Amino acid sequence: MDIEGLGDSTVQQLSDAGLVSDPGDLYSLTREQLLTLDKWGDTKADNLLAAIEGSKQRPLPKVLTALGCKGLGPAASDALSRAFGTLGAIRAASEADLATTDGVGPTIAAAIVRWFAVPANRDFVDKLERAGVEFGLVEVSRLSQHLAGKAVVVTGALDGYTRESAEAAIKDRGGKSPGSVSAKTFALVVGADPGASKLAKAHDLGVPILDLAGFEHLLATGELPAV
């Protein structure tokens, strides 16, 4: 569950001592239990407990990726988070509904359904919920998804946007914002001091290049501005 300072050796020590059988048990550890371990003092115990407490709040895409469901990587996890909003909604969704999410498809959807069909996996998630782990509630975008299936790359600084907010604006409308230009790129948005390699590749591949005004037109309509 992405807990700082929790390496393999610590996990093994906790397991050997009978304190944890799966990651969900980490959230019920006490200071007194940790202090019974060899070479554990107050500082080490307190640091681990603080890290465990901090891990209770993680963005939903990271939580999904950490579950270890086959094929469910960061991109698909992000798409599912935006589409469904909570882990509970994803857990309750049908395979067909999951498969229609952009970037997921039938193979990953089937893997998710199989993962939640395993009693031990459901028990693990339930254990985390009882421990107070927040499964990264995200706001589901209510914007028109007119960029669905379109990859829009951003390079350089855009007035009024950070890199993160520009990418979020694309994803909130159903699009993707990869870090590189390819033949599948719908458009390259160029701000100040853009990456030379991205520009060159866009020119070579004939990818449309947009300035800030063009980007905002794309966000508003899902279409390239008229030439």
Secondary structure: number of strands = 3
Q: What is the highest CATH level, the class of the largest domain?
A: Mainly Alpha
Rg from Cα: 22 Å
Gap from first CA to last CA = 49 Å
Main beta sheet: strand number and arrangement?
Answer: 3 strands, parallel
Strand order of the largest sheet: 1-2-3
Remind me, CATH topology of the largest domain?
A: DNA polymerase, domain 1
Note the topology.
Elements: H1 8-16, H2 31-34, H3 42-54, H4 60-66, H5 74-84, H6 87-92, H7 95-99, H8 105-117, H9 119-130, E1 151-155, H10 163-171, E2 185-190, H11 196-205, E3 209-210, H12 212-221
Parallel strand pairs: 1-2, 2-3
Helix pairs in contact: 4-5
Can you offer a commentary on this structure?
The chain is mainly α. The protein has three domains: 8-54, no CATH class; 60-130, 5' to 3' exonuclease, C-terminal subdomain (DNA polymerase, domain 1, Orthogonal Bundle); 151-221, 3-Layer(aba) Sandwich (Rossmann fold). It contains twelve helices and three strands. Strands 1-2-3 form a three-stranded parallel sheet. α4 (60-66) crosses α5 (74-84). The N and C termini lie far apart (49 Å).
